[in-house]
Write a structure and sequence with these properties.
Belongs to the GTP-binding SRP family. By secondary structure, the chain is mainly alpha-helical. Helices cover 54% and strands 5% of the residues. Helix 20 links the parallel strand 2 and strand 3.
């Protein structure tokens, strides 16, 4: 096992393999004819073949033999003597490797700063040191150190003067984060600016509490943003300050009655008081993508409602107008009818008819996807669903609904519902009349006992007359129980135009 480490022969493995193959090929027939007994009684003349294989292996081993390691006497290190390592004045210094220079500079840098005065003393020493053949180890180190000091003293003196200026210019400024309350000192202008610096704010306009912010700020705590604009805050300050001006002129009993009158609240709103606030409210609504006409009508209705109204205690014009506008928006957006799909489906079951829901909307808002979600919700509540593929215009619409149906059946297999299929797809291909397909699907659902029919329609814009006419025909002919408009924020006012 250990011959590879003991012997230096590299051809042993090859020799063993060659002998094995040669012996097997030469005596194969005898082994097959005589069997095991032939091996005991037979004689094998293999000496000549073995010697031939040995010679071949030795020749190949010489060709592939590894390079012999050099002895110490043959290496370059043995040729270096103490004399060749000493540098004299008359000789040029030998080139050194850059890595060695860096190591020497790091190691000797501290010693150069401590003992700079030793370099002038070295000039007085005789230069006959190079004539000696042998020097002690301490003398060699001292000589090399002195030469190192001489070479680096001049470069160090040249680079000393510009260093302080460079360091001043390279200062990295700290990052200042918004809402971090870390720039309080920078914003603190309470002290007078030195040398009359320009841009300093007057002391009467400075609010130290507002500039410093929360001094008890917890680390890692995020402060909520205030959505109130500065203009609204200024308006509130003006409204609060104006009633106090006439009361300051009065004194004695009149001032007391004025204060009590202000607490009770007897100021009535006028159109002149509300106009600035309503103008800002209208601009804010327009900035939030509300149509200009709608914003103007809304502000006008709020003004008519509040004109002549007495303000409450400790209230301002801005807060009063904002509260009235909020109430108006809630009244407009509140639905006029209560939509309870599950209750309506159960009511349709009692009349033995399917509950029909039609999905409409512009292109790509997710009508088919939301139809599949509502199908899953209805199946979870125990209702069977029939999907009517009435989008005969868009390529791939029927295949999309077929995929949704297959996924829903995998989630709710018929075995889990007594062998009844909870969702099916009713489709007639492309190019057909959508209203006719919806009518056939509703009739099929009534005969088969489905609880809900979900009608998928093609996406369309309000300016597409043929598709809008087809949608109107589908609604008029089939009279669905619920029409759902699927939209998103990007649809905008086109949603209103399409519903109209």
């Amino acid at each position: 096992v250990g011959f590879q480490k003991i012997l230096t022969l590299t051809y042993v493995d090859k020799l063993i393999d060659d002998v094995h193959k040669e012996f097997r090929d030469k005596y194969r027939n005898e082994f097959q004819q005589k069997g095991a007994l032939g091996l005991l009684n037979g004689t094998f003349d293999f000496k000549d073949d073995f010697m031939r294989l040995l010679r071949d292996a030795e020749e190949s081993g010489k060709v592939r033999a590894p390079a012999v390691m050099k002895t110490f006497e043959q290496s370059l290190k043995s040729q270096k003597t103490v004399k060749c390592m000493i540098e004299t004045r008359g000789e040029k210094p030998k080139e050194k490797v850059k890595n060695k220079k860096n190591k020497v500079s790091k190691k000797e840098g501290s010693e150069a700063a401590v003992a700079p005065g030793k370099a002038p003393a070295a000039d007085k020493q005789p230069s006959a040191a190079g004539d000696r053949e042998e020097l002690t180890k301490d003398e060699i180190l001292q000589k090399n150190r002195e030469e190192f000091f001489k070479r680096h003293m001049k470069a160090g003196e040249k680079s000393r003067s510009p260093k302080p200026e460079a360091q001043k210019e390279k200062g990295k400024k700290p990052r200042v984060w918004d809402l971090g309350n870390s720039n309080a000192k920078v914003l603190d202008y309470s002290n007078s600016a030195p040398n009359g610096a320009a841009g300093a704010r007057p002391a009467e306009d400075f609010d130290p509490d507002a500039a410093l912010g929360d001094r008890n700020r917890e680390p890692g705590r995020l402060y909520d943003l205030e959505y109130e604009s500065d203009d609204e805050a200024e308006e509130e300050e003006k409204v609060v300050q104006n009633p106090s001006k006439p009361s300051a002129k009065k004194g004695g009993l009149g001032g007391m009655f004025g204060m009590l009158k202000g607490l009770v609240g007897s100021k009535s709103l006028t159109r002149e008081d509300m106009d600035p606030v309503l103008e800002k409210m209208k601009d804010h609504l327009i900035a939030k993508n509300v149509a200009a006409e709608i914003a103007a009508q809304l502000c006008e209705s709020v003004a008519k409602k509040l004109e002549g109204k007495v303000m409450g205690t400790f209230t301002t014009v801005t807060s009063t107008v904002k509260q009235a506008l909020q109430e108006a928006l809630v009244q407009i957006l509140q639905p006029q009818r209560r939509v309870d799909v599950l209750r309506d489906v159960m009511d349709a079951q009692r009349h033995r008819r399917p509950y029909v829901v039609t999905f409409c909307g512009v292109n790509g808002v997710g009508k088919s996807t939301n139809l599949a979600k509502i199908s899953f919700w209805l199946i979870e509540n125990g209702f069977s669903v029939l999907i009517a593929a009435c989008d005969t215009f868009r390529a791939g619409a029927v295949e999309q609904l077929r995929t949704h149906t297959r996924r829903l059946n995998a989630l709710h297999p018929p075995e889990s519902h007594g062998g009844r299929s909870m969702v099916q797809l009713y489709e007639k291909g492309y190019g057909k009349d959508a209203a006719g397909i919806a009518m056939e699907a509703i009739s099929y659902a009534r005969n088969q006992g489905f609880d809900v029919v979900l009608v998928d329609t093609a996406g369309r814009m309000q300016d597409n007359a043929p598709l809008m006419t087809a949608l109107a025909k589908l609604i008029a002919v089939n009279a669905p129980d619920l029409v759902l408009f699927v939209g998103e924020a990007l649809v905008g006012n086109e949603a209103v135009d399409q519903l109209v």
